[in-house]
Amino acid sequence: MNSQTGQLISFAVLIAAFYLLLVRPQMKRQKEQSALMASLAVGDAVVTIGGMFGTIRVLEEDRIQLEIAPNTTITMARSAIAKKIEA
Q1: Which of 64, 67, 63, 40 is nearest to 55 (CA)?
Q2: Which residue range is the domain that position 77 belongs to?
């Protein structure tokens, strides 16, 4: 095996490792986030990326109104939801 072939093989291994360690997990997280955004509904208990807990009261295409305390509602970007809280 000559040095060019060895370099080509090691470059291919680096590309494969980069894909498996960085690209693939990021694509999985993005897919999970998209599924979460699609599954949101009025009445869901959620936590935002800032750590604020609340209940969705109004759900629009790119915004939500989140009730964080009785009679206290804030408007946030829909993408600010980190996860649903299961009861």
Answers
A1: 67
A2: 41-87
